[in-house]
């Protein structure tokens, strides 16, 4: 007999529904609080089977022997809660021990808890409770620690199986076989029908363990475990069949519940050899063809002492080792993560439905520096969030004033109290309230300006350093300040580091939104200007200062208050900011990025629908006029005497650095001398007879 | 034939009222029970709203095989992890009667499917959530790579009649669920019915002539078109 192989049982594989973790969390918070005593929980299992893949290309798969915990796991254990279990499943009662801290979880005397459950099963076998209610044979243990802040759940299942001194073997000629190899199909069908009736009578609770025999008139009969003594009266030992709902789906091995059932049979009725029916059905399909039958035996000398046997059955983790698992439910329960998912999905819809080539990942990774956290800065930031941009940095040196919140959508009345909070930092804080996933910070820095002489050299030096470092660490620089000359330094830095610079400026009812040109280093390509054949060739697109023939100087001096504050129609800023962001997004979609040539007019009547980006054309400058509600697209060429982006200036900055900047801040006319603008002035004055208009004079 | 005896037509095909939805849903439930042999359809359940009458929905749970996708990128990580550095439990000797199963051989997913009425669109909406075996949900990317059949991926992305996948709170359970956006459902349901030029325009009973689908067949027809995108099949048994 010893040559016969051991019966090897398929252990359970735990399956926990998200709803269970939800319920555990709420109960911990509202009900248990700091009480960490054990509680009963209700699990369930179904019979094992293979499932047909829903995808035609894949083969059928065997399901693991799952012990599941679902929504109703914390309901009181009674007939009503049993009836709420999913159809075709069998109850299993567990004990949950949820610790208060991770440390408690670690040092918990796990063996003692496991032993408690093992002893309970043993007692139920001896007292006969398990005969009346055989589902008690499947008791299990669950130890958990719920990290409610991180929505992370540490857990470990134990499924105690009693281990007797002698192990069960497969009986001679009793190898496991599918039912159709042993039974005629009409018998299988009769069995299925009778078992269904039996199950209905037992209302599932105790249908997981049962007796099967053939009556004298060859009918297949089913009985409850408690009928053992009478049911098999007159049967040959070969005709006695004990069945159980088998969670295993392997054609070669029975599942875990059989272990404690065999101990029960041996202990109570001195069974040493028995035929076992492993009931396996495909739920709802009335298909039990995967049911198996085997015979098992144990030497009849084997004794079970009165001592509780030891138990085995801790679940292994996904590495196949004995240890706890953890489940991260943050994507489902952490509001921040949910916001991430939803924003992401929303944008993806746009890509899938409208613009298949939309580069959402590129937009998302783009780091944006917003110089100015006023009306423009706030609107630009909100609009960037809409596109899924995460990295948004604000620079401003002002405080929130009482007039700000109504026009600047990242500030609230409270922010303007007690002298007002710092705008840059407050904008960043509030942006995080809009979208916690944003990576944002505010810097309180004054941007040094030409014609605004330095008062503290060390301060100016550190401001310049900070701004230089910020421009360097971002991809797109938005110029959103309220004065012209404060744009000079970032324009220079942007040109020098070849960044995409988007500039927005407002009049009362006019605005300009433009991108600064970046020189194409690819000398082979001279075609960097306007792509329209109607336009003269443009070598490099201009910057904000390219059309000036004077250097920027203190525009705030000698002005009345209403001139110093930007007085604009309130809707203008939202319009211009939106254009600025959309311009950035379009440029990001061009293969040349900031170097991309300017498109001018896209004739709506034109049949030519090809545009330079999937989103359409990319202009150089958008000039808007609210009086007529229209826009003009304008292309401006880079000016070789430009005070901000010309080669002369960039070279001077490269070789003299801060010393150069310092001279400019002290005396803006230095820029005119350097670029040759001063000479130009002299020449034109000598020529005499025309007047320079100080207004912008575009192409 | 369930639909020969009691055929009711919608007042405003392809739109349903909430009452019509409930009738449609319960007819679907009947069909699913009858199709048991074919599809295991018995697993659909009608759930009443805890407080509001007439706000119920259909649900079922499915276990499906996890698709192995080559397109799965590297930054894809399994959420299911083990706890490191925990003292292990002593299980003295390896128990010879325990079958040693190669760990985590079978990859399967649990999907909760819910069919819920949309007040705004006046059509049924298919909600779903997909979980790993420990209850952790699939990420957006995992849903596309593990749940949606590759041949359907383009379809869902260009959002033909499936309308694309979005996420929002389940109207009754108030937990986040994915759903197939219903914006194209009415168009879809309209497009599948024959539209012969009806001459009896003012007749009250021209629905049949228009080939409209009766209430009783609405959900199975709709679900058979949209469900298989997310692994939910409506077998022939529902139509017998």
Automatic annotation (TrEMBL), chain A:
Pfam families: ATG7_N, ThiF. Residues 7-333 form the Ubiquitin-like modifier-activating enzyme Atg7 N-terminal domain. The active site is at 565 (glycyl thioester intermediate). It is found in: Cytoplasm; Preautophagosomal structure. It comes from Glomus cerebriforme. Keywords: Autophagy, Cytoplasm, Protein transport, Transport, Ubl conjugation pathway. One of its GO terms (biological process) is protein modification by small protein conjugation. GO terms for molecular function: Atg12 activating enzyme activity; Atg8 activating enzyme activity. Belongs to the ATG7 family. E1-like activating enzyme involved in the 2 ubiquitin-like systems required for cytoplasm to vacuole transport (Cvt) and autophagy. Activates ATG12 for its conjugation with ATG5 and ATG8 for its conjugation with phosphatidylethanolamine. Both systems are needed for the ATG8 association to Cvt vesicles and autophagosomes membranes. Autophagy is essential for maintenance of amino acid levels and protein synthesis under nitrogen starvation. Residues 350-593 form the THIF-type NAD/FAD binding fold domain. This is Ubiquitin-like modifier-activating enzyme ATG7. InterPro entries: Atg7 (IPR006285), Atg7_N (IPR032197), Atg7_N_1 (IPR042522), Atg7_N_2 (IPR042523), ThiF/MoeB/HesA (IPR045886), ThiF_NAD_FAD-bd (IPR000594), Ubiquitin-activating_enz (IPR035985). It comes from the Eukaryota. Its main location: cytoplasm. Homodimer. GO terms for cellular component: phagophore assembly site.
TrEMBL record, chain B:
GO terms for molecular function: Atg12 conjugating enzyme activity. The keyword Transferase applies. Keywords: Autophagy, Transferase, Ubl conjugation pathway. InterPro entries: Atg3/Atg10 (IPR007135). The keyword Kinase does not apply. GO terms for biological process: autophagosome assembly; autophagy of mitochondrion; protein modification by small protein conjugation. It holds the Pfam family Autophagy_act_C. GO terms for cellular component: cytosol. Belongs to the ATG10 family. This is Ubiquitin-like-conjugating enzyme ATG10. It comes from Glomus cerebriforme.
């Amino acid at each position: 007999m010893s040559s016969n192989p051991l019966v090897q049982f398929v252990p359970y594989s735990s399956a926990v529904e998200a709803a269970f973790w939800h319920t555990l969390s709420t109960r911990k918070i509202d009900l248990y609080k700091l009480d960490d005593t054990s509680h009963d929980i209700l699990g369930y299992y179904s019979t094992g089977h293979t499932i047909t893949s829903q995808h035609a290309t894949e083969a059928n798969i065997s399901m693991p022997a799952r012990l599941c915990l679902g929504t109703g796991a914390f309901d009181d254990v009674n007939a009503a809660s049993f009836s709420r279990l999913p159809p075709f499943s069998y109850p299993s009662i567990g004990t949950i021990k949820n610790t208060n801290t991770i440390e408690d979880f670690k040092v918990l005397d796990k063996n003692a808890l496991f032993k408690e459950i093992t002893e309970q099963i043993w007692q139920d076998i001896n007292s006969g409770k398990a005969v009346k209610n055989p589902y008690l044979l499947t008791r299990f243990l669950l130890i958990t620690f719920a990290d409610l802040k991180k929505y992370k759940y540490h857990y470990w299942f134990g499924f105690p199986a009693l281990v007797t001194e002698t192990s069960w073997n497969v009986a001679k000629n009793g190898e496991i076989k599918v039912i159709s190899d042993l039974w005629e199909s009409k018998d299988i069908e009769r069995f299925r029908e009778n078992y269904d009736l039996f199950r209905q009578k037992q209302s599932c609770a105790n249908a997981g363990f049962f007796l099967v025999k053939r009556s004298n008139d060859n009918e297949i009969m089913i009985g409850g475990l408690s009928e053992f003594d009478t049911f098999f009266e007159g049967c040959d030992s070969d005709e006695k069949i004990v069945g159980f709902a088998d969670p295993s789906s392997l054609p070669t091995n029975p599942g875990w519940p059989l272990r404690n059932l065999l101990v029960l049979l041996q202990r109570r009725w001195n069974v040493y050899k028995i035929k076992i029916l492993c009931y396996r059905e495909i739920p709802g399909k009335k298909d039990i063809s995967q049911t198996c039958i085997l015979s098992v035996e144990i030497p009849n000398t084997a004794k079970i002492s009165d001592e509780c046997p030891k138990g085995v059955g801790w679940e292994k983790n996904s590495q196949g080792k004995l240890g706890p698992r953890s489940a991260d439910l943050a994507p489902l329960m952490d509001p921040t993560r949910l916001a991430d998912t939803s924003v992401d999905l929303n944008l993806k819809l746009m890509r899938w439905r409208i613009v298949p080539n939309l580069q959402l990942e590129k937009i998302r990774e783009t780091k944006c520096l917003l110089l100015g956290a006023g009306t423009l800065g706030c609107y630009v930031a909100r609009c960037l969030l809409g596109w899924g941009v995460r990295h948004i940095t604000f620079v401003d040196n002002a405080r929130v004033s009482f007039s700000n919140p109504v026009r600047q959508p990242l500030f609230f009345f409270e922010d303007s109290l007690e002298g007002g909070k710092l705008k840059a930092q407050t904008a960043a804080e509030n942006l995080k309230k809009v979208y916690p996933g944003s990576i944002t910070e505010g810097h309180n820095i004054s941007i040094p300006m030409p014609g605004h002489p330095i008062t503290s050299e060390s301060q100016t030096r550190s401001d310049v350093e900070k701004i230089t470092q910020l421009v360097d660490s971002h991809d797109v620089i938005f110029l959103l300040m309220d004065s012209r000359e404060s744009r000079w330094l970032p324009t220079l830095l942007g040109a020098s580091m070849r960044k995409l610079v988007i500039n927005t400026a407002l009049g009362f009812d006019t605005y300009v939104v433009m991108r600064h040109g970046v020189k194409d280093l690819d000398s082979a390509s001279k075609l960097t200007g306007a792509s329209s054949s109607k336009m003269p060739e443009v070598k490099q697109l201009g910057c904000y200062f390219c059309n000036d023939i004077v250097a920027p100087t203190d525009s705030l001096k000698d002005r009345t208050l209403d001139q110093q504050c930007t007085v604009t129609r309130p809707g203008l800023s939202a319009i211009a900011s939106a254009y600025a962001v959309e311009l950035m997004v379009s440029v990001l979609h061009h293969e040349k990025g900031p170097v991309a040539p300017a498109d001018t007019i896209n004739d709506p009547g034109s049949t030519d629908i090809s545009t330079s980006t999937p989103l359409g054309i990319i202009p150089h400058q958008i000039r808007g006029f609210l009086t007529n509600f229209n826009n003009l697209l304008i292309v401006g060429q880079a000016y070789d005497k430009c005070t901000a982006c010309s080669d002369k200036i960039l070279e001077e900055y490269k070789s003299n650095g801060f010393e150069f900047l310092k001279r400019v801040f002290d005396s803006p006319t230095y820029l005119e001398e350097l670029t040759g603008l001063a000479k130009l002035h002299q020449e034109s004055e000598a020529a005499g007879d025309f007047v320079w208009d100080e207004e912008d004079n575009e192409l | 034939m369930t639909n020969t005896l009691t055929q009711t037509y919608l007042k405003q095909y392809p739109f349903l009222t909430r009452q019509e939805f409930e009738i449609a849903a319960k007819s679907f439930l009947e069909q699913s029970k009858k199709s048991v042999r074919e599809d295991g359809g018995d697993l659909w359940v009608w759930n009443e709203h805890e407080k509001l009458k007439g706000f119920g929905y259909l649900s079922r749970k499915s276990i499906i095989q996890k698709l192995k996708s080559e397109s799965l990128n590297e930054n894809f990580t399994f959420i299911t992890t083990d706890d490191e550095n925990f003292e292990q439990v002593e299980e003295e000797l390896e128990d010879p009667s325990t079958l040693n199963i190669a760990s985590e051989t079978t990859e399967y997913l649990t999907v909760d499917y819910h069919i819920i009425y949309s007040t705004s669109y006046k059509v049924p909406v298919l909600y779903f959530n997909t979980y790993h075996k420990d209850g952790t949900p699939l990420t957006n990317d995992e849903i596309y790579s593990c749940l949606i059949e590759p041949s359907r991926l383009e379809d869902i992305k260009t959002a033909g009649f499936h309308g694309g996948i979005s996420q929002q709170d389940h109207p009754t359970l108030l937990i986040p669920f994915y759903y197939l956006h219903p914006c194209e459902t009415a168009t879809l349901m309209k497009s599948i019915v024959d539209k012969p030029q009806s001459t009896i325009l003012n007749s009250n009973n021209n629905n049949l002539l228009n080939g409209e689908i009766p209430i009783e067949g609405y959900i199975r027809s709709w679900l058979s078109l949209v469900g298989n995108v997310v692994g939910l099949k409506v077998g022939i048994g529902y139509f017998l």
